[in-house]
Amino acid sequence: MEDERLIRDVQRLKEGLGPLPAPVSRPALIIVSGLPGTGKSYLSQKLAERLPFIVLETDALRKMLFPSPRYTAGESYRLFRACHLLIEGLLRQGIRVIFDATNLVERYRERLYHVADQLGAKLAIVQVEAPPELVRQRLEERALSAHQAARSEADWSVYEKMRPTVQRIRRNHFVVDTSEDITPLINKIVRELRQ
Predict the structure, then answer these.
(1) Which positions ≥6 away from 154 have C-beta within 8 Å?
(2) What does R_g of the chain's alpha carbons equal in angstroms?
């Protein structure tokens, strides 16, 4: 029963993606990790402008599965299981994927490392940071923004609640502070993935 629901969830997410980029012989997975308001989606968008990637943004995907999300542990578990299976399927098809999520817990990231390793996909992990005062300002501005409809609902209290759950990334990874110019990092990631 749970497996059937998982398959339906993956199918619903896949149908909501729109057109996929052309497949490549060796796909890549970029795992973007960071607290709310640090600039993960901005970075993901900039990367996707440089190379043909499909961006899987969990804030938008969650609303495909749960039109009125409650952000419970069970809801998140169901969403991330579906996302991980979707990522595996896309990589098998040769599609480059950017996974834009908080991705704060190492054991959940390890599942994705394993999928990339198993499929021979290139893997890049990016830890996104920003000074807390800037994050607070961004989250306050986002809450007031009218075009915010389909994206994150996280506010400063969510940031504060999630902050202690951040776990060290144990694999080689990039670290970017989005209060600074991110272009050099974008260039570095693109160079690495093109090798």
Answers:
(1) 36, 37, 139
(2) 16
pLDDT digit string, tens, across residues 3-62: 899 999 999 999 999 899 999 999 999 999 999 999 999 999 999 999 999 999 999 999
pLDDT, average across residues 161-167: 94
pLDDT, residue 152, reads 74
Gap between the Cα atoms of 52 and 13, Å rounded? 19
- Whole domain around residue 53: which residue ranges? 2-194
- 3-class SS of residue 33: strand
**Which whole-number Å values give the CA distances from 128 to 44, 94, 103, 119, 194, in the listed order?**
10, 26, 11, 26, 22
For residue 141, what pLDDT is reported? 87
Our count of domains for the chain comes to 1
Q: Helix (H, G, I), strand (E, B), or coil: what is residue 31?
A: strand
Alpha carbon dihedral 17, 30, 52, 45, in 10-degree steps, equals 70
Q: Output the domain CATH number for residue 6.
A: 3.40.50.300
Alpha-carbon distance 112 to 2, whole Å? Answer: 21
Task: Tell how far CA 145 is from the center of its chain.
Answer: 22
DSSP string, 86-114: HHHHHHHTT--EEEES----HHHHHHHHH
